[in-house]
Design a protein that fits this description.
Blueprint lengths: L3 E5 L1 E5 L3 E5 L2 H11 L2 E5 L8 H7 L2 E4 L24 H17 L3 E4 L1 H9 L3 E3 L19 H4 L4 E5 L4 H6 L3 E4 L6 E4 L4 E6 L5 E6 L6 E4 L13 H16 L11
Parallel strand pairs: 1-4, 1-5, 5-6, 6-13
Antiparallel strand pairs: 2-3, 7-10, 8-9, 8-11, 11-12, 12-13
Length: 257
């Protein structure tokens, strides 16, 4: 049986009035077709799930992107208009879930907001808006164009020579899309920044001392995951770690790639 990957959902209003939990089809496609796992969505709602149940049910977790941001209270700062909108329910599920996964060695892969969740859960702080910082580029999704144009490759990411991401990708520089507004300001003590955009915005992290797969990227590898040379190895490594977990083993980060 394939490992089972839990994909956290975001809160939405259908037709501006009907509450729903949802995530993009490209996330389930990447998990099923590239990671080789069975994708199952779960609500980012602490009234519906417990951390203990999630850890028991799933072999690994994909923390997806989403428009709402992590509330700055979670990293010791005051809320401002620049912080945008929030999903406090997802905050209360994702952050303790990440810490539990890191402790246990249970695989976790973060994407965009999930990247920020992994960083914050492990003691990092965030900039509310990258494009407002001197010398930084606009990392947000282009406002116009087709979905293909919005997810097009837009900038390089350079990895640490010999680091986990360079080993995984077989390259020290890759091209990625970019669709985010916030970013890591101060990395937590175990959060190792391993990839940077040309303007030095952190784009890839891993957790030092984690006994299992604990990696995250700021871009969106779920787009075109089966054909993109950067996305495929990331999801394949995540899937392998989930299979190891299901088989009763952990996959140390040093073995990735």
């Amino acid at each position: 049986m394939r490992p089972i990957v839990g994909i956290i959902s975001n809160h939405y209003l259908i037709n501006d009035q009907y509450p729903a939990h949802a995530n993009g089809k490209m996330n389930t496609d990447a998990v099923a077709e590239v990671a080789g796992a069975m994708p199952l969505s779960f609500p980012g709602d602490p009234d519906a799930v417990t951390i203990e149940e999630l850890l028991e049910v799933f072999d690994g977790f994909l923390l997806t992107g989403g428009r709402p941001n992590i509330h700055p209270e979670e990293y010791g700062e005051e809320e401002t208009e620049a912080h945008g909108t929030f999903d406090r329910g997802r905050d209360r599920v994702a952050l303790p879930l990440i810490r539990a996964c890191v402790d246990r060695g249970q695989p976790v892969l973060g994407i965009c907001r999930g990247f920020q969740e992994l960083a914050v859960a492990m003691g990092s702080t965030l900039h509310p808006e990258i494009r407002d910082l001197p010398g930084r580029m606009n990392h947000r999704m282009p406002p116009d164009g087709t979905i293909e144009e919005k997810f097009a490759l837009r900038h390089e990411v350079r990895f640490t020579s010999g680091g986990p991401f360079a080993r995984l990708m077989g390259a020290e520089t890759v091209m990625t899309n970019t669709l985010h507004g916030q970013g890591v300001k101060q990395a937590g003590p175990r959060v190792k920044v391993d990839g940077w955009a040309p303007d030095d915005t952190p784009e890839a992290i891993w957790i030092e001392g984690a006994p299992g797969f604990a990696m995250a990227v700021q871009w969106h590898p779920e787009w075109n995951a089966g054909d993109d040379p950067v996305s495929r190895p990331l999801f394949e490594a995540f899937g392998a770690a989930c299979r190891d977990w299901r088989a009763g083993r952990t996959a140390p980060l040093r073995a990735v790639g």
